Amino acid sequence: MLELYHAASSVCSIKVRLVLAEKALEWRGHLLNLSAGEQFRPDYLRLNPEAVVPTLVHAGRVILESSVIAEYLDRLSDTNPLMPRDIGAEFATRHWLIRCIAIHEAINSLSFATLMRQRERAAFSAAEIEARQNQIPNPQVRAKRRDLWQHGTGSVYAKGALHVLRRVFEDMAAALARDEWLAGPGFGLADAALLPYIDRLERLGMAGLWQSEFPAVGAWLAAVQRRPSYDVSVAAFVPASEADAVRQIGAAHWPAIAALWN
Ligand SMILES: N[C@@H](CCC(=O)N[C@@H](CS)C(=O)NCC(=O)O)C(=O)O
């Protein structure tokens, strides 16, 4: 049995749930509440020492990194192969999967500079925030989180995120001018891997980043959202009330993000 440790609205967890749905694989989930700090539980740290989700456990193996998990799942079943067979498309896919590390950092920065920061400020005292940040194992990740906490959209990490995203949108638009999907004529691992990040930006009310400059990105997003795998892996885990709350907080920060973008 595939055992997935994941979180409801975590982008990397969504990537894996989307691939599980596309591949029609059976799995058992262990939902972690990241806001409650469940990723720091000693039993979970034994599986994932950096205290992040997702983690896949299968056949005695512990597999980390959402893009690696996605590729592993694709190899488990012949149903709906997601890695293209054409060598050019395969290596374009591999490039997108590697880029997901930087894309994740960018989305994480924008989420923390806006949504998470506002929510944590409302829910915790400064001392509680400090204690939570001190639990993050990697000092570099901790320092980034502190900077975002202190400066919000004024953090250098927010600006860096937009730098990364502009390149991503340019390359997505170029790929989509050639083919229907990101790495060829069929929906594949590249599309599944990128979906959660672009979907998060839209949920944060930041679609203005691509609407006029890169409309192909919006059309691609809508096409992925129409697939049956989307509802079961994303919408089913995020209640409408939560989606509305996220959009409202994001919208309040949009002017600051738009000013950094232009
Ligand atoms: N590169 C990793 C990133 C994992 C990651 O940072 N996950 C986030 C959720 S999307 C997390 O668990 N954050 C923990 C926290 O916020 O404390 C992957 O793709 O699996």
Description:
The chain has 262 residues and is an alpha+beta fold. It folds into 2 domains: 2-76, Glutaredoxin, CATH 3.40.30; 87-261, Glutathione S-transferase Yfyf (Class Pi), Chain A, domain 2 (Up-down Bundle), CATH 1.20.1050.10. It has helices at residues 11-22, 42-47, 66-76, 87-123, 126-134, 139-151, 156-178, 189-203, 215-225, 228-233, 240-261; strands at 2-6, 27-31, 55-58, 61-64. The chain has a 4-stranded mixed sheet with strand order 2-1-3-4, with helices on one face. Strand 1, helix 1 (11-22) and strand 2 form a beta-alpha-beta unit. Helix 1 (11-22) packs parallel to helix 3 (66-76), helix 4 crosses helix 6 and helix 4 runs parallel beside helix 8. The chain is globular and about 50 Å long. It binds glutathione. Glutathione binds next to helix 1 and helix 4.
Short structural summary:
The protein has helices spanning 11-22, 42-47, 66-76, 87-123, 126-134, 139-151, 156-178, 189-203, 215-225, 228-233, 240-261; strands spanning 2-6, 27-31, 55-58, 61-64.
Could you list some keywords that capture this structure?
262 residues, alpha+beta, Glutathione S-transferase Yfyf (Class Pi), Chain A, domain 2, 2 domains, 4-stranded mixed beta sheet, binds glutathione
List the helices and strands and how they pair.
Elements: E1 2-6, H1 11-22, E2 27-31, H2 42-47, E3 55-58, E4 61-64, H3 66-76, H4 87-123, H5 126-134, H6 139-151, H7 156-178, H8 189-203, H9 215-225, H10 228-233, H11 240-261
Parallel strand pairs: 1-2
Antiparallel strand pairs: 1-3, 3-4
Helix pairs in contact: 1-3, 1-8, 4-6, 4-7, 4-8, 7-9
Bound molecules: glutathione.
